[in-house]
Amino acid sequence: MSDLDEIVQLVTIAGERHIHPDFSTYVDDVDMADIRKLYEDMVVVRRLDAEATALQRQGQLGLWAPLLGQEAAQIGSARALEADDFAFPSYREHAVAYCRGVQLKELMPFWRGTSLSGWDPNKYNMATPAIIIGAQTLHAAGYGMGVNFDGANSAVITYFGDGATSQGDVAEAMGFAASFAAPVVFFCQNNQWAISEPVTLQTKAQISHRGHGYGMPTVRVDGNDVLAVLAVTRAALELAREGGGPTFIEAVTYRRGPHTTSDDPTRYRTAEDEAEWIRRDPIERIRLLLESAGALSEGDVKAIGDHADAAAAELRRGCLELEDPPAMSIFDDAYAEPHSLIDAERREYAAYLDTLDA
Amino acid sequence: MSAAAPARVPLGKAVNAGLRKALADDDKVILMGEDIGKLGGVFRITDGLQAEFGDKRVIDTPLAESGIIGTAVGLAFRGYRPVCEIQFDGFIYPAFDQIVSQVAKLHHRTAGAVKMPITIRVPFGGGIGAVEHHSESPEGYFAATAGLRVVSCSNAADAYTMIQQAIASDDPVLFFEPKRRYWEKGEADFAALDAAEAYPLHKARVVRPGTDVTLLVYGPLVTTGLQAAKVAAEEGRSIEVVDLRSISPLDMDTIADSVRRTGRLVIAHEAPVFMGVGAEIAARVSTECFYHLEAPIRRVGGFAIPYPPAKLEQHFLPDVDRILDAVDHTFTD
Question: Is residue A271 part of a domain?
């Protein structure tokens, strides 16, 4: 698809457009109004992420996995998806969920601990968070095989990090997807860190080379360039829908926050490193691009900010309104069909709880 | 043989017939595994099925157990009912994470929105003179995991109906096939056996009535248990043999009913006794049937060692003599 070592970039840090011989055409239809919408998406999800982080600090969430710095990688890829495509995320893809139309209040139950999931995967064509690293990539490969068996024209995307590429499941998923020409986009957000471990501990090669070994096209894209991510993901999805099988995308980005709110990145990385990635901020370059094109007025900035604040308020409200589920619901849905052990334990625990009420 | 008598077919052929019926009845059923296509599986259990249903329904997979189960999860998301073959019991461990962390939990995790009607077929147990990793009994690991159902067939008729019932279940089912009994023949009239009306998947069955002691067995040891009961009968002792059939959930009603009648219980399985299926049953029976028990419950099974080399496996596997020794203990303890 492209030189393995090249990083596809369409917008520079200074907000200037690049033409790329292979990928620019995939965003020919994207005008300044569309780019402003991508900008708005990124501003909103950054605001939501900050709000969720604050909610965790205030004791309202048990945990949160911040996406700060990865807005372009997630928005650019998710906005490339069609409604009938299916996404298999890890646990940091809040912006992808936002783009899939997941309700803001549905983002909270998983992290607040009122549910093991927040939404119905079939409603949004997006699975709920997968905590086991890389496990979801196999689900994507299998789903893609099913798409082929159905003779359908949709595609699948799966999200994982650089650390996940060390997992056997990711290797097996790429093997299955390639062998069965499954319409899967393996979207690796190389955010440089697997909790405290740098990407150099996962592989001596470039992450994008991982896909090459499975005979699939690979692309290395500037993960902080929303337009480039949109373009390469569209290209990969198009190839998948045309029967071209899987593509591996390495989106080179940086997790600016902690791995989760329990983490302390000051122990393992430098302020200089963080400063460098602030310089490559995904939102700032699009702001510069829009402003230089005269496509972002002060009024626009305020309206977008207001929208982000309103979304954050809705997220907070949705979180605080979540009620603890009833005790007896712990037995629900362990099985799809009646199960005598569950029935017995439910009866016994209900009887026990009744003795406390008496 | 008269024309009316049911055919006697090997257990392995019965599984094959059950799979064929399931494939024919529901086009969402697909088989996947290593070597199950042209070869028909290393035990030929899927023999002829790819030729009949095509390579989109009977899929030879890459050599990757976690991949087989993990892609089955994705296929289930898409509405399929995958039937995965794990080639040998000892090869299931690379898939353990996908089975216990994903297959078992996704229905619960999604509040019932996503079903995992996956059947995982595992030829299990010893007695065929194999090399290591080919003779294990890992059923206890899976029975200990909420969200999974675990069953084991022991005869041809059950093999035919139980595999169809497992595939029809909206829950994931670990289906343990007693590999050393694949060639053992039993009566099975496939035309007359309707899986929907057959004996329920999760019900234990008294396969030989008796009055003196209950012998609880499943899978490959049902045959051994029946042999032991026959020998005991010649010595004047009446053993009631119960085929557990389902390990999760347990049919405690049938088990407790038998123990209350006989007052004694011996549980035999090939897996090591320590922390095994028998331990769970013994604990439950002691709670439910304490005042009916005439003697401590006895367990017979594998030792707390890795499965031994083939030339020593007869010492590891419960046989008629070890089972009868345990039965004797319930009268002398």
Answer: yes
- The CA-based angle A233-A283-A87, given to 5 degrees, is 30
Cβ within 8 Å of B, A 332-351: 332-337, 339-342, 344
Q: At what angle do helices B252-262 and B277-288 cross, to 10 degrees?
A: 60
The 10s digit of each residue's pLDDT in A202-253 is 988 999 999 999 999 999 999 999 999 999 999 999 999 999 999 999 999 9
For position A237, which CATH number holds?
Answer: 3.40.50.970
Do the chains contact at A142 and B72, CB–CB below 8 Å?
Answer: yes
- DSSP state letters, A318-338: HHHTPPPPPGGGGGTTSSSS-
Q: Which residue from A336, A340, A345 is spatially nearest to B249, judged by alpha carbons? A: A340
* Phi-psi group of A215: left, alpha or beta (phi > 0 → left; psi -120 to 50 → alpha; rest → beta): left
Cis (ω within 30 of 0) for the bond into B200? no
Nearest CA in chain A to B72: A142
Running DSSP on this structure, what letter comes out for residue A126? B
Residues 6+ apart with CB under 8 A from A328: A346, A349, A350, A353
Looking at the structure, do residues A338 and A303 belong to the same domain, yes or no?
Answer: no
- Options A268, A335, A339, A347, the catalytic residue: A268
Q: How many angstroms separate the CA atoms of A314 and A296, rounded? A: 25
**Domain shared by B99 and B27, yes or no:** yes
User: For A73-117, what is each residue's pLDDT tens digit?
Assistant: 999 999 999 999 999 999 999 999 999 999 999 999 999 999 999
Instruction: Quote the minimal CA–CA distance from A141 to chain B in Å.
Output: 6
Residue A5 belongs to a domain: no
Strand partners, B134: none
Beta B58-60 vs B29-33: how paired, if at all?
Answer: parallel
User: What is the structure's pLDDT at B5?
Assistant: 67
Separation in Å, CA A71 to CA A194, A224, A302, B312: 18, 7, 20, 61
Question: How many CA atoms within 13 Å lie on the side-chain side of A343?
Answer: 10
Of B56, B101, B250, the CB nearest to A341: B250
Answer yes or no: do A208 and A343 share one domain.
Answer: no
B134 flagged as catalytic = yes
3-state secondary structure of B221: helix
| B64 in A contact zone (CB under 8 Å) | yes
Sign of CA dihedral A80, A83, A88, A91: positive
DSSP annotation of B198 reads S
Residue in B with minimal Cα distance to A126: B77
B70 belongs to a structural domain: yes
Q: What is the CATH number of the domain that holds B228?
A: 3.40.50.920
CA angle, residues A286, A3, A190, in degrees to nearest 5: 55
How many domains does one find in chain A? 2
* 180-239 of B, contacting A, C-beta below 8 A: 202
Query: Which positions in chain A touch B73 (Cβ < 8 Å)?
Result: 138-139, 142
pLDDT in the model for residue B132: 96
Domain count, chain B: 2
Q: Chains A, B: CB contacts under 8 A, how many?
A: 147
Q: How far is CA A237 from each of CA A25, A232, A234, B43, rounded to the nearest angstrom?
A: 14, 9, 5, 40
Distances (CA, A) of A123 to A127, A201, A311, B269: 10, 38, 21, 45
Of A88, A132, A140, the CB nearest to B101: A132
- Percent of chain A residues past pLDDT 70, beyond the cut: 99
- Does B239 lie in the same domain as B183? no
pLDDT, average across residues A32-46 = 98
Q: Give the domain range for residue A121.
A: 11-325
Of A171, A181, A169, the residue nearest A209 (C-alpha):
A171
Q: Is residue B246 part of a domain?
A: yes
Model-wide pTM > 0.90 = yes
ipTM metric: 0.94
B231 membership: H or E segment, kind and range? helix B221-234
